[in-house]
């Protein structure tokens, strides 16, 4: 299920005309908001994309789905984010400095 959500999100990003590399940070930030199980964080994140009510409801359903998976999912899923950031495309687009900052943040937060 989790892999399907990631693939779906990446496909949607591609269909919206974004380069995947340009969407790396936005995707990971939104994915993190989904993992928090806090509606406040989720709404703050999706509001920057001017989400419609239907889109907010869809994101809430995704958040509920991820919350039902439990702690193991919340611990393992950030590894997907790290692999996304460490992809050659993201490194090339954002540079090694931002990648290092993200890795440091994840290490500090004990996320990965």
UniProtKB/TrEMBL annotation:
It is found in: Secreted. Keywords: Secreted, Signal. It holds the Pfam family Feld-I_B. It comes from the Eukaryota. InterPro entries: CH2-like (IPR015332), Secretoglobin (IPR016126), Secretoglobin_Domain_sf (IPR053723), Secretoglobin_sf (IPR035960). One of its GO terms (cellular component) is extracellular space. Residues 1-23 form the signal peptide. Belongs to the secretoglobin family. This is ABPBG26. It comes from Mus musculus castaneus.
């Amino acid at each position: 299920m989790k892999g399907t959500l990631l693939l779906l999100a990446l496909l949607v990003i591609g269909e919206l005309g974004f380069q995947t590399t340009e969407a790396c940070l936005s995707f990971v930030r939104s994915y993190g908001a989904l993992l928090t199980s806090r509606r406040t964080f989720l709404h703050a994140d999706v509001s920057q994309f001017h989400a419609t009510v239907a889109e907010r409801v869809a994101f809430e359903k995704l958040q509920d789905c991820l919350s039902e998976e439990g702690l193991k999912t919340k611990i393992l899923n950030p590894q997907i984010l790290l692999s996304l950031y460490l992809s050659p495309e993201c490194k090339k687009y954002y540079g090694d400095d931002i990648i290092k900052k993200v890795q440091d943040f994840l290490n500090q937060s004990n996320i990965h």
